[in-house]
C-alpha cells in the first residue's frame, strides 16, 4: 500500500452541529484534545420503535442499456468480459434493469431471442442500429449463472415486430400492447433463466412525451394488468407489474398532473400495479440542496401511491445541461459521484424501497460504472462508483436489519451535512456493522460506542477514497492515467483491525476525507 492509500490522520476542525431530516436522530460531537484529531462520536442505540424490516441486496443494482453494454462489455465470443463479471459478483442478488432506459422504448424482443446469429439489426439510438446478439436469452443467463442477480425487464410500449410479417409496427391499441407483452412474458418465463425476472416495468420516461398523457399510459397499463391476472399461466399471474411515475414534475404542463392522471384512470379501469418506479438525479453541482431536499419526484410519487413498493430504476448525480468536453461531465463518475451514489443507497435502505439501479453500465455518457481507455487497447477499469458501492455493500448484511442512522454537519464540508452513518445487525442478531460516507474535506476520528464488543473483537475495514480529490470540476481521479486512484483497501482485500476498546466501551477508528466506508465486526 503506497503512501497515497494510507488512512489519513485527522486534523482539527470546527465544532460539529447536528441536523435532523425527518426520522433521523441527533449525532452529538465532542471536542478532542488539542493535539488529536476532531472526533465524531456516535453511541449506537436501537431506534424507537425498533426496525424489523430486512435489508435487501436489490438496492445495489444497475441500469443496463442493451446496445451500449453489448458493444463495449461483451467480447467477440459473445460473453461478458471477465473484468466486468468479476467486479459485479460482490453484488449478489442485485437488480439489473434491461434492456435499459430510453433504448427500451424501441427494443424489439422478437429480434433479440433464439439461436440464430446474427440477429436482425434493430434501433439502438435515434440514428444507429445494432443486432441484439447478446440479447434476452444471453443476458438472463449471465445475470442468473454468473452474478446470481435478478432483473427488472422494461417493456417497449411503443413498437413491436408483427409475428406474421416480421415487420416492426406501432401499437395501435392497449389490447395490441397487452397481447405482445404477454407473449414476451410467456417466452421468458418458460426459459430456464426466466425466473430471474423479478419485475416487469412499463416503459421508460414516457411522461416526457406529450403523445403519452397519463390517461393513455394508464389505459395500456390497465389492459396488461387485467390480462395478466386472467392468464391461465400461474407464472404470468404472479408477475409483478410496475408502472412508472413522472420523472420531471416541474417540466411540461402535462407532466405536472401525470401521476394523478395515471392513478385516477387505473382506478376507473379497476386495476392497480404491484409496484411503482421513479427516476432520481440528485445533487446537481453548484447547488446547496442536500440528498433529502432533492427527492422531489420520489416524494410526489410515494405520496400518490402510499404503501406501494418503490423501485428507483435510475439514479445518479444530476449534471443539468453539460458539455461532454468539460470536466463537469466526468464529475458524475468521479469520487464525488461515488459518495453521492452510496449516500443515496443509504437513503434507500432507510426508506425501505424495494430496489434501485445506478445509471449505468454504459460507455460514452457522463455516468459510467466502468471506464474504457482511449488508446487502442480499450482497457476496462472501474470508475469511482464501483468501489464506493462495493464498500457500502460489504457492510450491509442481507437479511439483517437497520439498527439506526445519523447525520452530522460541520464547517469542513461544503455539503449541507458532513457525515451520514448507519448501523446494521446481521440475521443472527450477533454481528453489527457500521457504514457511512464522509463528505467532509477533512478526515475524522470516528468514535463508536458499539454494543457487544470486547477486547477480542476484530473488525474488517473497507474504505473507498481518493486522497487527492480536488474541487467539483477536478476530474483528476477519473482519467486513463489515474486508474488506480481509489481503493477499497487494496480493492476487496480486507484489513483486520483489533478493537482497542477503551474503559468506556468505545472504539475509535480513523476515516479519510471524502470517503465511503464499512466497519464489520467479525
Automatic annotation (TrEMBL):
Q: How far does the signal peptide extend, from start to end residue?
A: 1-33
From the record, what ranges are coiled-coil?
A: none
Please provide the record's keywords in A-Z order.
Signal
Under the heading InterPro entries, the entry gives: ASD1_cat, GH, TAT_signal
Limits of the Alpha-L-arabinofuranosidase 1 catalytic domain:
91-192
Q: Pfam families from the entry?
A: ASD1_dom
* Gene3D superfamilies per the UniProt record, alphabetical: Glycosidases (3.20.20.80)
Know the name of this protein?
Answer: Alpha-L-arabinofuranosidase 1 catalytic domain-containing protein
